[in-house]
Amino acid sequence: MKQSIPTIVISEQQSTCELLKLYLQEFEKFNFLAAASDLTKAYNAIKELDKSLIIIDISDYQEQALNFVSKITSEFENCRVITLSDKPQVDIVIRAMRIGASDFLSLPLIKDEFFEVLTKHYLDMTGGKPKKSKCRVITVYSNKGGVGKTSIATNLALELAKITKENVALIDLNFQLGDVTTFLDLKPSFNISYMLQNLDKINEDFLLSTLEKYKDTSLYVLADPPYFKPAENFSSKEITKLFDILRETFSYVVVDTSSGFDSKAINALENSDLIFLVTIVNLPALRNCQRCMELFDKLGFDDDKVQILINRYMENDEISAEDAEEVLGKNIYWKIPNNYFTLMSAINKGVPVSSVNQDSNVALGYKHLALMVSDSVFRQNMAKKLGRV
Ligand SMILES: Nc1ncnc2c1ncn2[C@@H]1O[C@H](COP(=O)(O)OP(=O)(O)O)[C@@H](O)[C@H]1O
Ligand SMILES: [Mg+2]
């Protein structure tokens, strides 16, 4: 039998502690050790454990509780933390994740969500592999150039890696004319054309051991180096095979595309779970977006699979987001604010936007977007917060 993992619940509310205890007993794989409201006592108990799960309600003494999360996650490598709050504001969720919490759930607790999170942690903590079928392939597309596809794909992929700490692949389908390597100042030694030519040799172990991670994150970039060589023509079967391998290896695959409808782009779109159709709010761009949606419809893509992202959004634009929704006949999924200065500074330095200014409106925009697609629990929390359920 697999081990059960000692679990400590920290909350000021007796009722929360009792409910968590009941749920944990029902779930069985986590062994409820104690409930505490005293952080020092909890700390001393954690210190004695090799491996532990801490469920901490930060509703009442938020600052103190977050400092505690930061302390235990930095001191105890094998300690996992799930934070709970009855005030799950976006900035708090992001802060909690940044300082090391593995999950964030809103109170009152929804049992299914809680069990979903427990399952994920149990598999992670006992060396079981989480189901790979969970991989989401997200393609960022527009039939217009210069609307911000590469900026969104790059920053979204990086934020996803930072938030989930799971393996994320960023694929540049522009091949030798791609911008991803420039945006992240990379010189990949192992390129996407090589992979397509050697599909039979490539598998999960090969990819994870060969590809370089971006700095100290779990982001892997697959792009051609920016020197010129003739484009290879790959069949749709080969591209689909590549996506199959990527799905087995990564939890998220973010694809940056060129603006055309070439076979690579169509293949990527077909292989995606989610397509972000990027537009800016002016009439020609919205018309283009409409045409794309018609085409996607003809290709048989589900309505839910295609989501609209507005880039370079400005509150006082002549055309409002509501106008855009009316023209497109579809809700806007998310808006990335206009911030030319921060974007240009990031691109010129070859760093992600969060490295230029992590509190800028645009960096937060990418982060929120990553939270929305990161996994169902976060998505539900965020969606509720944003009034999009
Ligand atoms: N949110 C934004 N605010 C301001 N400028 C942006 C924003 N997103 C992208 N840009 C600018 O638009 C230009 C094109 O962006 P890019 O991501 O390369 O678009 P694409 O990949 O669609 O061609 C870049 O120079 C970038 O500075
Ligand atoms: Mg681009």
Compute the average pLDDT. 88
Give the tally of β-strands. Answer: 12
β-strand percent reads 15-25%
Q: Unreliable stretches, pLDDT < 50, 5 or more residues?
A: none
Small molecules (ligands, ions, cofactors) in the structure: adenosine-5'-diphosphate, magnesium ion
* CATH level 1 class label of the largest domain: Alpha Beta
CATH fold-level name of the largest domain: Rossmann fold
Task: Spell out the helices and strands N to C.
Answer: EHEHEHEHEHEHEHHHEHEHEHEHEHHHH
Q: Cα distance, first to last residue? A: 40 Å
The CATH architecture name of the largest domain reads 3-Layer(aba) Sandwich
* Major sheet strand order: 8-7-9-6-10-11-12
Task: Return the domain count.
Answer: 2
Taking the sheet with the most strands, its summary is: 7 strands, parallel
The CATH homologous superfamily name of the largest domain equals P-loop containing nucleotide triphosphate hydrolases
Q: Helix- and strand-based class?
A: alpha/beta
Question: Helix proportion of residues, in percent?
Answer: 40-55%
Describe the structure.
With 389 residues, the chain is of the alpha/beta class. The protein folds into 2 domains: 5-125, Rossmann fold, CATH 3.40.50.2300; 132-385, Rossmann fold (3-Layer(aba) Sandwich). 46% of the residues lie in helices and 18% in strands. The protein is built from 17 helices and 12 strands. The longest helix is centred in the middle third of the chain and has 16 residues, at 149-164. Adenosine-5'-diphosphate binds at residues 142, 145-151, 179, 311-312, 336, 338-340, 343-344, 347, 362.
